[in-house]
Amino acid sequence: MLQQTRVETVIPYFERWLQRFPSVEALASARLQDVLSAWEGLGYYGRARNLFKAAQLVMKEYHGRLPEEVSLLRKLPGVGRYTAAAIASIAFGLDEPTLDGNIRRVLARYFNVSEDARSKIGEDKLWSLAAQNLPEGQAGDYNQALMELGAIICTPKNPDCAACPIAAGCRARTLGIQEQRPVLLPKPAIPHYVVTAALISRENRVLIACRQPHGLLGGMWEFPGGKQQEGEDLAQCLQREIGEELGAEIAVGDQVGVYRHAYTHFRVTLYAFRCTLVRGEPQPIEAAEVRWVAPNEFSQYPMGKIDRQISQTLVSSTSL
Predict the structure, then answer these.
(1) pLDDT tens for residues 143-193?
(2) What is the average per-residue pLDDT within 57-78?
(3) CA 17 to each of CA 37, 49, 162, 289: distance values in angstroms, whole numbers, following the listed order
């Protein structure tokens, strides 16, 4: 949960998660929809799907006990180099260096690493420094201390060097360039997409579709629609998308709202419209499943941020 999410955000989710899934066995035997519902609001839902798959693998291959070796940990879905090393050192006391964003920043400043921290050369150098300075038998405490130092004192902006316990040896601080480390070259511009969603109602129920269980928002429920293509107006976009996704023809009615959200690598502006079926019964051509759902049942279906906002708009609306 702490990957790409702040501690203060995670704590209530973590506590609720442990109440709902108190063991690896409980998580492994759950339904994916229940796992995604418990995760809803944390974003990056691939983490939840990977955690679910990892729990099932741990039950199947390791009799419910997490393996200790880094090589075995890295075979679990969603567990990369950093996570495997963090688990091995903190949970099992093994002498393994790790490198999260906080440790990366502390090392880049302390040793004045001038290479781009996201490049292979910079990454390799930082991992090497992490390994070289690892105190034998104390890797777990050491790794956690660096994480905490980076989170509280050696922050991305305005680091509190006066309070830093290792400031005397910090090369970047000596040179007065601590805020220029780590070196991070500019990322490409983030693309922006215009997206539409259809709120198709029938007998006081609204059609929702479940995304395929992989990729962005995999396994989550949404109001069907998609990205606008060049030369289309919003109504044409929505009619094309519903035809492609559901094999149905719709008439596009009033606009319900405009919703904006920024993902990691792109931004979207979504326009939601009330729609009616003109021809054809919706089929899950591109979705995993479609359902007609009453608005008061929306909370039972895990949704991404925008679709949850749309559902709340419908719940508060006087009519469909």
Answers:
(1) 999 999 999 999 999 999 999 999 999 999 999 999 999 999 988 899 999
(2) 96
(3) 10, 14, 38, 26
pLDDT, tens digit, 9 for 90 and up, residues 86-131: 999 999 999 999 999 999 999 999 999 999 999 999 999 999 999 9
pTM > 0.70: yes or no? yes
What pLDDT, on the 0 to 100 scale, is given for residue 264? 86
Instruction: Write the secondary structure of the chain as one string of H (helix), E (strand) and C (coil).
Output: CCCCCCHHHHHHHHHHHHHHCCCHHHHHCCCHHHHHHHHCCCCCCHHHHHHHHHHHHHHHHHCCCCCCCHHHHCCCCCCCHHHHHHHHHHHHCCCCCCCCHHHHHHHHHHCCCCCECCCHHHHHHHHHHHHHCCCCCCHHHHHHHHHHHHHHCCCCCCCCHHHCCCHHHCHHHHHCCHHHCCECCCCCCCCEEEEEEEEEEECCEEEEEECCCCCCCCCCEECCEEECCCCCCHHHHHHHHHHHHHCCEEEEEEEEEEEEEECCCCEEEEEEEEEEEEECCCCCCCCCEEEEECHHHHHHCCECHHHHHHHHHHHHCCCC
